[in-house]
Task: structure prediction
Amino acid sequence: MSDQTIWGNDLYDTLVEEGVTLFSYVPDGGHKVMIQRSLDDPRVRSVPLTTEEEGVAMAAGAHLGGIKAVLLMQSSGAGNCINMLSLVANGQFPFVCFVTMRGTFGEENPWQVPMGLAVRPALESIGVVCLPVERPDEVAMTARAALAMAYKSRCGVAVLLSQKLIGAKAF
Amino acid sequence: MTPSATSPETNPRNNQRLDRAIVVPRVIGDHRDFLIVSGLAGAAKDVHALEEGADNAYLLGGAMGAAVPMGLGLALAQPDRHVLVVTGDGELLMNVGALATVMVAGVSRFSILCVDNERYGETGNQITHTAMGVDLAMVARGFGIRHTMAASAEDEFDAAKALLRRTDGPVFVHLKISDTPPPKPSSRSFDAVERKLMFRKALLGHV
Result:
């Protein structure tokens, strides 16, 4: 587990440097730094969602309007997005999300395990490319790769922030 | 008598309501006043009938529940333009929490027109929850949408048209219409990629 105040700030700065101006999120402890930075930053908009699938459609609408958006969510939210990702696949919309993983490495909450294991096959089955990250020094470069791929190859990309990076929450 | 979900009895009031093919164009007025995102099924056909291939409209053919959050993303990207979301009662019910997200996002030039026929029109005309007492205008008000109104009679349509154009929104207009089918598209111009490119080219000058 590494210090979120370092990689979280690094990731946030990278996204803004790359031109992201709209953040949407369903809260998660692993995104605490990113969410707070986006809410405090007058250069961007940051919108809390009631369910993660809204963030998929919102990103597509943002693209129609000419700005870059990202969705921040926990692994449990990936399942909520599946049918909405039809819009990304069918419309070849760029879509980037950052998924803080639960239910995988050292998880102690059994409720997190089924969806945690399903994230990658579920997202890949609807055409989203998954880029896992385990080390803090890979976070920023993976974010850049995800944005480049989504916007140049016109597809959905999920950056999976592993529990080795964010830590397994004990409860 | 309360209609049940298994027997789609026609609501007696429904027979007095107007045909969507007449009412929707009347309430929207000049569609060029807006950037439009339209939800799947009847709503998309209503918008398609305004002007086939209009480059200010993105028509969804699936991804049920997408219209409101997609319109919201567009509104956040284009704060100087007025965004209109046209959606059906069935679609809105599927992702009704998006109204809460609209409220907290602080968009002021953002209007939702809910075309409510109390039916899932694409799947066999089964009644929706709005035929059984769910009041979507009240729901929108409860979610904090600033300006809401329900319109079901001739003398309310001008007020609805004006409300959609308010710039101190968000606005929610709940249009109760009969269950007559939506206008039939002359061609199913709902290609998701083609419409995306056309919309961006018109709005941004590039794809």
Notes: Residues 139-153 of chain A form the longest helix (15 residues). Chain A has eight helices and six strands. The beta strands of chain A are 20-25, 45-48, 68-74, 95-100, 129-133, 156-161. Chain A touches chain B at residues 22, 45, 47-51, 53-67, 69, 83-84, 86-87, 90-93 (CB under 8 Å).
